[in-house]
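User: hey, got a sec? need GerAB/ArcD/ProY family transporter folded
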Amino acid sequence: MVVRSLSVAGIIESLDAIVVALWIMSIFIKLALYLFVLSYGTAQWTTSEKWRRNALIFTAMALPLAMLR
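Assistant: Yep! Here you go:
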């Protein structure tokens, strides 16, 4: 068991839902930060000012790769 059962005034019986929600939000934020750093760093490395275009290209490349598994 990852999270113990806890009763807070009978309202919250298990903290599993809260932990899973925080875990999913942290994964989303981490992936968004990785995408930003990759696209912005590539734009600076290639001396391009269009980092948002790079983000779109990297996202378009990553989505089919994510669907493979």
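Quick note: The longest strand covers residues 5-8. Let me know if you need anything else on GerAB/ArcD/ProY family transporter.
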